[in-house]
Amino acid sequence: MYLVVGLGNPGKEYENTRHNVGFEVIDYLSNKLGFDTSRERFGGNFGEYIYAGEKIIFLKPLTYMNLSGESLIEAASFYKIEAENIIVVYDDMAIETGKIRLRPSGSDGGHNGMKNIIAHLQSKEFKRIRVGIGKAPRSIVDYVLGKFTNEERKLIDKSVEAAGEGVMSIIQDGIQNAMNKYNTFNACQDSE
Known about the structure:
By secondary structure, the protein is an alpha/beta fold. The chain is built from 7 helices and 7 strands; from the N terminus they run E-H-E-E-E-H-E-E-H-E-H-H-H-H.
C-alpha cells in the first residue's frame, strides 16, 4: 500500500500559488484516473485508488503547509504504511520552473512542510517528487504564496503532469527506473 501526499495550503486564496503544486499533482491524478479526493479525514482531503495491484491513498493535508506532517502521520498510522511507501510531492525553489526531481530520500532542503513531515515521521527515508518553482526574486513568503505568471503556468502545467506520471512510475517501476525516466524532464525543452 502507498500513501501519496501532495503539499499545499487550503482555501481559495491559495489556489494556483507556487506553494500549492503538490495539491495540483493530486488533482491531476484524480482527474486522470477518476478517483475522488473530497472525503475529509486525517486532517486532509483524501481518496483511494487501486493501481498495479497496489492500494494507493492520495492525501491533500488541510493543516496548512507548515503542519503537513500532522496529517501525513495520521494517515500513515491508520493504514500502517511504512515510510518507504510514502511519496511526498511539493514545490522546490532550488529547482528551476519546468523541471522536476525524484529522490528516494533526503533532507528537508529548507522546506517547512518537509521539516514538519520528517519530524512527525522521524524518518527521511520516504520518496519525494520536487516540482521546480525557481528562485524567489523577492521575499520568499510573497513568492511561494504568489501566483505563476502566464509563461510559468504553461511550464508548471507540464511539470504537474510529469510529476503525476512520476508518482505512478515509482509505484509501478520502482524509484530507480522512475528517476531515470523523469529526472531529465524539462518542460522548457518539451515546449520547443
